[in-house]
């Protein structure tokens, strides 16, 4: 008897975790795998944040917090949004969650009826499409490619909007492409959104700090659509706190209340110790943590140069985040040592098995002709990984 729900059967596993688990299993078998799969900073949590967590334990922050988070943390987030993004929110518009992942899910749960459409510019982060499905929605995908920096235009957005569109969900800076929308591009997207008041923008800004050019902008800064935007952010990337599970949303009041309702039935307030530590993190001058970005930039430059050298890989220099997303369409439809490569996921698996380098194929990012590598890894591993891939691809018989 099949006892699982249709909803669960529709859902796929998170491909980032599938590939990182595979790499981990191979390592456990004694195989020397370099895993460039999961996107997470490889730095330790900065000392002043750890210190704040120790103090929170000693001060017995061991009881439930309010569902949407401690008021001091929500005030720190409000201050951060003003300081870094020029956005004005009140603490009752903030919902602190178990990672940005839950913050996005809360918003989708609050917005979607069965069959509602959510626009996803591709490439998108792997969980977006699955989260939309989980909440009964349908994703409407707008394709982009490496030739247009993986970004959509206002005209494409306009064409994709229907009366059933409930939201557009994107990350800027983008996981996996590392591109981000400029002020002018956001302005033109905002002009389209303003014409469709039934559409909410879910603007995932979690890679905001990991940015190698000018600071990125939030679409919520355009007053004509402020009431239509849910800003998503969190502590995972900018503060190397992935395991501490703190993210947040900043929404118009009607939506913030709904997030509170969803979260209150699902998980309650996020981990209290991590919340207290996040207050310290957000109140610290961001320049104190800048050393991580400087280090990522060095690795980006190195990894980009190494990846350009791989035959058949076409790659852009990413402006933000810590991923490279080369177009590998050269290999698609070919056989490598007799193994048919139908899409980038097949190539990713081939490279894992034959070069012992883990990546994530682009199928679940909505770009089946691209591969994602996380360069949040040591310089030594980045050099070795690309050497292995280059050697492997120049050795194989391609037909
Ligand atoms: N959004 C994007 C674009 C991501 O890459 C991630 C991955 N961590 C998340 C949201 C979720 O982050 P977390 O749940 O760790 O805050
Ligand atoms: N966001 C990271 C990634 O894309 C972490 C894994 C996940 O949450 O999917 O690899």
Q: Would you kindly provide a written description of the structure presented here, covering whatever features stand out?
A:
- With 399 residues, the protein is of the alpha/beta class.
- The chain contains 13 helices and 14 strands.
- The protein has helices at 6-10, 15-28, 47-58, 71-85, 99-111, 126-134, 154-160, 183-194, 253-266, 272-283, 290-308, 344-354, 379-395, and strands at 34-35, 94-97, 117-121, 138-142, 165-171, 200-204, 229-234, 247-250, 323-324, 335-336, 339-340, 357-358, 360-361, 371-374.
- The strands form 4 sheets. It has a 7-stranded mixed β-sheet with strand order 2-8-7-6-5-3-4, sandwiched between helices.
- The chain starts with 5 loop residues before the first helix and ends with a helix.
- The mean pLDDT is 96.
- The site of 4'-deoxy-4'-aminopyridoxal-5'-phosphate has 13 residues, from helix 5.
Nutshell version of this structure?
This protein is α/β, with parallel strands linked by helices and 399 residues long.
Write the layout of secondary structure elements.
Elements: H1 6-10, H2 15-28, E1 34-35, H3 47-58, H4 71-85, E2 94-97, H5 99-111, E3 117-121, H6 126-134, E4 138-142, H7 154-160, E5 165-171, H8 183-194, E6 200-204, E7 229-234, E8 247-250, H9 253-266, H10 272-283, H11 290-308, E9 323-324, E10 335-336, E11 339-340, H12 344-354, E12 357-358, E13 360-361, E14 371-374, H13 379-395
Parallel strand pairs: 1-12, 3-4, 3-5, 5-6, 6-7
Antiparallel strand pairs: 2-8, 7-8, 9-14, 10-11, 13-14
Helix pairs in contact: 3-10, 4-10, 5-6, 5-9, 7-8, 11-13
Bound molecules: 4'-deoxy-4'-aminopyridoxal-5'-phosphate (PMP) and glutamic acid.
């Amino acid at each position: 008897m099949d006892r699982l729900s249709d909803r669960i059967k529709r859902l796929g596993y998170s491909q980032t975790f599938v590939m990182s688990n595979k790499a981990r299993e191979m390592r456990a078998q004694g195989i020397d795998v370099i895993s460039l799969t999961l996107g997470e900073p490889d730095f330790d949590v900065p000392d002043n944040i750890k210190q704040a967590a120790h103090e929170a334990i000693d001060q017995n922050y061991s009881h439930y917090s309010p569902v949407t988070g401690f008021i001091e943390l929500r005030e720190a987030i409000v201050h951060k949004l003003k300081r870094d993004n020029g956005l004005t929110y009140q603490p009752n518009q903030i919902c602190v969650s178990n990672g940005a992942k839950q913050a996005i899910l809360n918003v989708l749960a609050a917005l979607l009826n069965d069959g509602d459409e959510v626009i996803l510019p591709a490439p998108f982060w792997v969980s977006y499409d699955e989260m939309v499905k989980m909440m009964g929605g349908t994703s409407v995908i707008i394709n982009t490619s490496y030739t247009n920096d993986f970004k959509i235009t206002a005209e494409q957005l306009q064409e994709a909007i229907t009366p059933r569109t409930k939201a557009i969900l994107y990350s800027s800076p983008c996981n996996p492409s590392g591109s981000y929308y400029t002020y002018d591009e956001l302005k033109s997207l905002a002009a389209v959104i303003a014409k469709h008041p039934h559409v909410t923008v879910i603007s995932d800004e979690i890679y905001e700090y990991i940015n190698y050019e000018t600071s990125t902008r939030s679409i919520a800064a355009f007053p004509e659509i402020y009431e239509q935007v849910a800003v998503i952010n969190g502590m995972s990337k900018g503060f190397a706190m992935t395991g501490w599970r703190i993210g947040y949303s900043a929404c118009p009041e009607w939506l913030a209340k709904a997030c509170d309702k969803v979260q209150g039935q699902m998980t309650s307030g996020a981990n209290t110790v991590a919340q207290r530590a996040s207050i310290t993190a957000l109140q610290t001058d961001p320049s104190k943590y800048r050393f991580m970005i400087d280090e990522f930039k060095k690795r980006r430059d190195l990894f980009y140069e190494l990846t350009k050298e791989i035959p058949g890989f076409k790659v852009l220099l990413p402006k933000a985040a810590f991923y490279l997303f080369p177009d590998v369409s050269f290999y698609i439809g070919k056989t490598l040592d007799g193994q048919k490569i139908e899409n980038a996921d097949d190539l990713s698996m081939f490279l894992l098995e034959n070069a012992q380098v883990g990546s994530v194929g682009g199928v679940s990012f909505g770009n089946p002709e691209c591969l994602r590598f996380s360069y949040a890894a040591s310089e030594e591993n980045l050099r070795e990984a690309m050497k292995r891939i280059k050697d492997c691809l120049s050795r194989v018989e391609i037909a």
